[in-house]
Amino acid sequence: MNINWLRSLFPRRRFYADLYAEMAEHLEEKTDALVAAGLSRDQAARAARRAFGDVTRHEERGRAVWRSSWLEGLFADFRLAGRTLLRSPRFTALVVLTLGLGIGANTVIFSVADAVLLHPLPYRDAGRLVWLTESLPSTPDNNLSWLDMQDWKRQNHVFQDIAGYSDFSLTSNRAASPQLIPVRYVSRGYFALTGVAPQLGRTFQADEHRPGGAPVLVISHSFWKSQFGGAPGALGQTIELNHKPWTVVGIMPAGYGAISHTQLWAPFEPTASQYMTMRQFSWGMYALARLRPGVTLAQARADLGDVSRRLEQLYPKTTGGEAVLIPLPQRIRGDIKPALLLLAGAVALLLLIACANIAGLLLVKAVGRQRELALRLALGASRARLLRQIMAESVLLSLAGAGLGLGVARWGTALLVALLPAGTPFLALIAVNGKALGFALGASLITALLFGLAPALLGLGGALRASAGARPGAGGHRRVHASLVVVEVGLATALMIGAGLMARSMLSLFRVSPGFDSHGVLAESVVLDQASRLSPAQRAAAFTRVAQAASHVPGVASAAAVSLLPFSAQALQPAWDETYLALPERQPLPANPRAVHYVSASPGYFRTMGIPLIAGRAFQPSDVEGAPPVAVVDQELARRYWPDSSPVGQHIKLFVQDFNNTSKPALTIVGVVGTVKAGGLDVSQKGEVYCPAAQSPAGGMTIVVRARLAPLTLAPSVAAAIHRAAPGSPIYLTQSLDGLIAASQATRRLFLRLLVPLALGALLLSALGLYGMLSYVVSRGTSEIGLRLALGAQRADITRLVLAQGMRLALMGILVGLGAALVVTRLMASLLFAVRANDPLTCLAVAAVLAAAAGLACYLPARRAQRITPMQALRSE
Amino acid sequence: MEEPRMPARTSRDLFPGALEMMILRSLKLEPRHGYALVQHIQRTSRDLLQIDEGSLYPALQRLLREGCVTARWEISPSNRRIRVYRLTPAGQRHLERQLSSFEQMLEGIRAVLAPVKP
Q1: Contact A672, A712 (CB under 8 A)
Q2: What kind and span of H or E run contains A527?
Q3: Is-contact A211 A270, C-beta < 8 A?
Q4: Which of A460, A484, A598, A752 could cysteine-pair with A579, CB 3.0–4.6 Å?
Q5: Helix H or strand E encompassing A572
């Protein structure tokens, strides 16, 4: 091993130059010597050359010394490949662009899927964790009571342990801007169940899990960083929350709690002790359990089902319903999975179309070079060498495509992150990652191998035949190319139908009226400081004060307070404190009461929101504590319970899962208002019962403000007014109602935003594929066309011929696509609204658009064919 | 560009390594440039060896690459630009090794070809 070897890799030119120079000198010197010996210059020169030997061969062998033959061959292949590709820039650009877009889109989806679906949960062996709750027909997932969970723990045979948790928030009492901090109350053994130890400090001890236990906290890594600067001295410090001092005893490692947005953990038992003696009440509790080794999901479900049924028989009146067991990973990722898979399918289709396009292009190129390949074979090139060179071109193309694809991926990922709903798990972790890089490179290399090799082999096979005199461009290539085009058009059809269905769903949704006038309304959600300490009268007074303060802000037309804001998170998802309606005059409490939305509203709420009054009256200032309890129902309830009469004057009773409540007084209905789609534009409504805030105030209300200007510009002044009227009460959400409604459809809108460009891209690519193929057919068939013209065919006939060929393929593709769409769109059914999965109008429209695009794609080559003259045709022979 | 194929061997070809050995031996006596080396080899072999003059150059390149010689452009007494080659210590050792194995080979062949003693 020698330095010269290393130098030999690169500055070869200098060695070549030196070699050339000294050989030239040698010849000159020999010539001079011979001249001195008496020969003429000419004779001397010739003699010198003869004595030297074959100059070129010696020089070449001298040069060869400086080549590391293996590496040199590779470099040469790639250099040649690069030059060849640059000689046909349109072809190269088309292939690289197609590949880049296909790979880029796929990488984006892969990155998102990797973070959201495949990313491991921060728990030990998360696949063995399950999520438990109880379910009643009216309330599918919110009824796990403490006593039921204890019985499950004692009587099951399939779990190592079960622990309960409940998510709430605590107010940090900072004067200027109090904040709500999410806290998860956990029962004994929770942290051990998840298998994660604290990074610093400890988790809870037995005596902290008891009524009267000390208020202790375990904090999250991000809370530690933001509130304590990451200092180890945070352990043992106290924080004031809900006007109580809480001591920090442990700090969890980074990432723990991120999924549920939890910042703090506190022991369950002391806080909720009053709920732990009543089997019929839950406190928003769910449970986690770890399966015993070797136990399957089916076995666990069966065992838990047995236990649950036994409990139901023992305690029929207070049962929470049937046990529900879902693997934790599925619970966390569940909602987004079907839509994401659909999207992944769509993008994979696009990649397929792109690959088909590229395959067609490469095929055409390979066939076109058959003469060149044949010549080189005849000149002594080895087949392996030629194959290597063709492969080098494919590899270069795919590397360039991968590079472009990564750029597209980076941009696309940022775009997708901006568009995804804020609550998506692991949103912060979505980034173009190493696995995506590997996937992109893998996809591109496989594409290169598949689509570079096949045409290359076909090309070489044809080259041998061509060298024997047969004509290149035999039928086999045409059939392959034609099938590729049919497949492309079919895939594009399927994609476009999918996008069309989504678009129609969105259009239908936009036309659905929410039941109130959402334009120009601002909402700010407030939790009263120490709400539980206030009497109902005090709470009522507080909210009246706050609503009045808000209404005096300049730019505000009217303001009101409400306990449940339509399209808010509580309204969109089933709550754990459901309210049930009973009609005491008609019948006793039914076995499975229907849940309704129980809304506490201040006077002026209906006016502020623009909810129409249908019958009777709205609330008045006289509806206060002590006055007869009244209620207003919406049309949904009126229709359901009083279809033939007016509900005004009727009596109803409301049951809340409130352990204080034994029997509330009956409420008199005084009015009927229009139905509000509080739970979402596309779901069936529960129905709303409104009570005056003065008679049934809540601890947290949302102030809604109808603004004369753009709602969000008033937000700071309204917030200031709220703080003045209720000091120490944190505002935790500020938004416009239009924004809320739009956000409720965020997932659908996102997928539409992604599907439409995909579908258009598919349309473009398949049209290009068709165009490319027909162009090639026309250019190859020039002689045939010329012959036909010479034999008397009209130009129009030629055009018709070419068009027919192209449109036949397009129509075949459309039919194939329609068939595929019928199957595929069934998978999207959950995302559609007001349109069937096999909607004929959409299919027809898509078929028409594709046929038009295909017609355009065929027209240009057809026109070129039309212009061929017989002389041209003969000359091309 | 195809790989150069090995030319068919003729009766005038030396066995591989022979030329390198002779070059090193000549350079041991004194540094020379390509033409001078050819002259020296032809003189000392009393013209028994017929080699293409040009074939020296690939051999010189090989030796240069392996570090057995160094090369430097100089001006000759007759005002020519010549590239002078010098033996390196590594080249010296290479030469000794080649010589000894060559002697060994020669001994062996001689022994096999020797006429059988009556």
Answers
A1: no
A2: strand A521-527
A3: yes
A4: A598
A5: helix A569-572
Nearest CA in chain B to A47: B53
Q: Which of A8, A22, A386 to mutate to test the interface with B (most CBs of B within 10 A)?
A: A22
CA A218/CA A200 separation, integer angstroms? 10
Q: Does the pLDDT of residue A29 top 90, yes or no? A: yes
Name every residue whose Cβ is closer than 8 Å to that of residue B89 and which is 6 or more positions away in sequence. Answer: none
3-state secondary structure of A472: coil
- Dihedral sign for Cα A473, A479, A483, A489, please: positive
Q: Are the C-beta atoms of residues A366 and A390 closer than 8 Å to each other?
A: yes
How far apart are the C-alpha atoms of B84 and B86, rounded to whole Å? 7
Helix (H) or strand (E) holding A25: helix A12-36
pLDDT at position A303 is: 93
Distance between CA atoms of residues A523 and A560, nearest Å: 10
Q: Helix, strand, or coil here: A757?
A: helix
> How far is residue A710 from each of residues A421, A510, A519, A715, A795, measured CA to CA in Å?
24, 21, 9, 10, 64
Of B2, B54, B67, the CB nearest to A4: B67
- pLDDT, one tens digit per residue, over A153-183 is 999 999 999 999 988 888 777 656 677 788 8
Give the pair of three-digit tokens for residue A201.
Answer: 């400090």
C-alpha to C-alpha distance for A667 and A664, rounded to whole angstroms: 9
Token pair recorded at residue A510: 């936009």
**Reported ipTM exceeds the 0.95 cut:** no
Phi-psi group of A409: left, alpha or beta (phi > 0 → left; psi -120 to 50 → alpha; rest → beta): alpha
Spatial contact of A734 and A714, defined as CB atoms under 8 Å apart: no
CA distance readout (Å), A159 to A122, A132, A204, A377 = 20, 12, 22, 71
* Residues sharing a CB contact under 8 Å with residue A570, sequence separation 6 or more, in sequence order: A564
Alpha carbon B114 to its chain centroid, in Å, reads 28
DSSP A664-724: PPPEEEEEEE----TT-TTS----EEEEETTTS--SEEEEEEEESS-GGGGHHHHHHHHHH
Which of the residues B61, B69, B72, B79 would you substitute to probe the A interface, choosing the one with the greatest number of A C-beta atoms within 10 Å? B61
